[in-house]
Amino acid sequence: MGGRVLALVVFLLAWWAVTAAGLIEPLFLPSPGAVWDAFVQANTWHQVAPGVDRLVQGEQGYFLWEHLLASCQRIFAGVGAAIIVGPLLGFAMGMWRPLNTLLEPYLNFLRALPPLGYIGLLIVWFGIGDTSKIWLLFLAAFPAITIATINGVHSVPRDYINAVRSLGANRRQALTHVVLPSTAPEVLTGIRIAVGFAWTTVVAAELNNGIPGIGGLAYLSGTQLDTPLTIACIVVIGITALVLDALIKWIGVLAVPWKGKA
Questions:
Q1: Element (H or E) spanning 55, and its range?
Q2: In degrees rounded to 5, what are phi and psi of residue 45?
Q3: Terminal-residue alpha carbon distance, the chain
Q4: What pLDDT is attached to residue 262?
Q5: From the centroid of its chain, how far is CA 206?
Q6: What's the Rg (C-alpha) of the chain?
Q7: Which residues of 100-109 are buried (b: 16+ CB within 10 A; e: fewer)?
Q8: Alpha-carbon 200 to chain mean position
Q9: Do 204 and 137 meet the contact criterion of CB atoms below 8 Å apart?
Q10: How far apart are CA 26 and CA 18, in angstroms?
Q11: Helix residue ranges per DSSP H, the chain
């Protein structure tokens, strides 16, 4: 822990030294203080311009935490749907090979597509509202969860199933007591990967009509050459991703305590 704090302090000092020495123009790399001021301004009421009495709320009419909350709501909707559909389809494909043979090429095709490749099509189909954004996040998360579930089913040793069947368990009991518990760790790993990938897609999802939204604010501030605010948004996006990942790992420890144990 101490090493990580020291590394962060060294990074901030180096950042401050480079900007203080004027080695890089503030447009390209603002100082840590400027980024902090942008963060504070985005979370408070402030003057619309120096010398003007009118106050405005945060950025683009919302506080930064409201932008973050809007993005999280879209993430939870899109990834939440993927968490429901992905394991169901993955389990079916893993247990029934004809279905796996039929759908696997399409699943891999979808997994290989970059989100920006089909965001325009989703906007045509569903408009520029939240529906297209949620669909994009769903499609970003769905393949990883499904493939992880398929791999989990295929990795269950056949001897385990044969052993419980020889002890008198029927097919349903073998599935619920052997296959599902053995597959659960892989599913949770897939969910962790999917959430991370969906979170990296949030800026693409919010390119159009993404306000409120932390990705939309990062994109808009970049187009307006407001580099301090852009970096502040990037930092918030990164910290939120770390928190979400730690939360999923903690849930995994509670939900699948047998993971990694013989």
A1: strand 55-57
A2: -80, 135
A3: 30
A4: 52
A5: 13
A6: 23
A7: beeeeeebee
A8: 6
A9: no
A10: 10
A11: 2-20, 32-42, 64-95, 97-112, 119-126, 130-154, 158-166, 171-174, 180-200, 202-205, 214-223, 227-255
**Torsion, CA 186, CA 242, CA 78, CA 82, rounded to 10:** 0
Structure tokens at 49: 């311009």
**Mean model confidence pLDDT for the chain:** 89
Encode 230-244 in three state secondary structure. Answer: HHHHHHHHHHHHHHH
Q: Count of residues for the chain?
A: 262
b/e map of 3-42 (b: 16 or more CB within 10 Å)? eeeeeeeeeeeebeeebeeeeeeeeebbbbebbeebbebb
CB 44 within 8 A of CB 62: no
Q: Using CA atoms, how far apart are residues 205 and 34, in angstroms rounded to an integer?
A: 27
3-state secondary structure of 170: coil
Chain center to CA of 110 = 17
**What is the model's pTM?**
0.88
Per-residue pLDDT tens digits for 1-39: 667 788 888 988 999 999 998 888 988 999 999 999 999
Asked if 181 and 92 count as a contact pair (C-beta separation under 8 A), the reply is: no
Per-residue pLDDT at 132 exceeds 70: yes
Output the CA torsion 14→233→222→115 (10° steps). 120
Kind plus residue range of the DSSP H or E element containing 45? strand 45-47
- What whole-number distance in Å separates Cα of residue 123 and Cα of residue 130? 10
Residue 197 · residue 141 · CB < 8 Å: yes
Residues 6+ apart with CB under 8 A from 100: 93, 94, 150
